[in-house]
Specification:
Number of helices: 6
Number of strands: 10
Order of helices and strands: EEEEEHHEHHEEHEEH
Helix content: 25-40%
Distance between the termini: 79 Å
Oligomer: single chain
Largest sheet: 5 strands, mixed
Structural class: alpha+beta
């Protein structure tokens, strides 16, 4: 799509594209419990359209069932945040809780009952493929692993706006008007969200948190960011200081033994 028809006034242009996940839901109005009944509006109950269940075993199986195929209601959420949650799912129980909120996507055709079944080991393979594609991992990824998720037409809604930025130089700080093109990619499932992020993240990488007790996958805000949040950054600094102190102490002890 073309950006909103609006003349570009400056010679500087910024482009920002965000990914949004639209979660299909069912909405049902319930009357408020009142005694005696009053003529007041009830409340809405919102539930995800896709219902997921899990069968335990050596390779737990997940079943997705669309409980309301004709629903036209949805809620919206940040695609980056959802992708981060999926890539950091570590157990079948955590996966079940995740999919109770977000639909994975039709990786397989529905069966005769209209359900989609997938195993925990297959989910781990999908995680592994996307982590390798989004990170600077040296582990090779076969193109076929991502073909069905990534190489699809990407529909981007563009809008043109203007924003004011501060220009810092040797001269006094001044403000300048800059034209901005804002893009939005809308997805209806987790795999579509991840595929869009792989396409849009070319040139940037996701990383594993440097804190060995965390190791969460995240998208850095800066080239030098190695931890996913400030708490892990503080822990990493403290660990490096402790390790440096320990090494210095060992060197001093070795020198003392040599002198004696």
């Amino acid at each position: 799509m073309q950006a909103d028809e609006k003349p570009i006034h400056s010679q500087k242009l910024t482009v920002e594209i965000a990914v949004r996940l639209k979660v299909m839901v069912s909405s049902e109005r319930f009357p408020r419990p009142q005694d005696p009944p009053l003529n007041e509006p009830g409340f809405w109950k919102i539930t995800p359209v896709w219902k997921v269940s899990m069968i335990a075993g050596p390779d737990p199986q997940f079943t997705f069932e669309n409980t309301n195929p004709d629903s036209r209601d949805w809620t919206e959420t940040d695609g980056d945040a959802v992708a981060k949650k999926f890539l950091n799912v570590k157990s079948p129980e955590a996966a079940l809780a995740f999919f109770q909120k977000y639909f994975l996507g039709e990786v397989k055709k529905t069966d005769d009952a209209g359900k989609i079944c997938i195993g925990w080991s297959e989910l781990q393979g999908i995680q592994k493929a996307f982590i390798a594609a989004l990170s600077d991992s040296d582990e090779p990824v076969e193109p076929e692993q991502l073909k069905q998720f990534v190489f699809q037409p990407l529909q981007v809604q563009l809008s043109h706006s203007e924003k004011i930025v501060q220009v810092i130089s040797g001269k006094p700080v001044k403000k300048e008007k800059v034209d901005a093109v804002n893009g939005l990619v809308e997805c209806t499932d987790v795999l579509g969200t991840l595929g869009s992020l792989v396409f849009l993240s070319r040139g940037s990488v996701w990383r594993k948190c440097a804190n060995p007790k965390c190791e969460m996958w995240f998208k850095p805000n800066r080239p030098d960011q190695i931890c996913h949040d400030t708490a892990c950054t503080r822990r990493a600094v403290a660990n490096r200081y402790s390790e440096k102190t320990r090494r210095n102490k060992n060197r001093r002890n070795k020198k003392g033994r040599k002198r004696s």
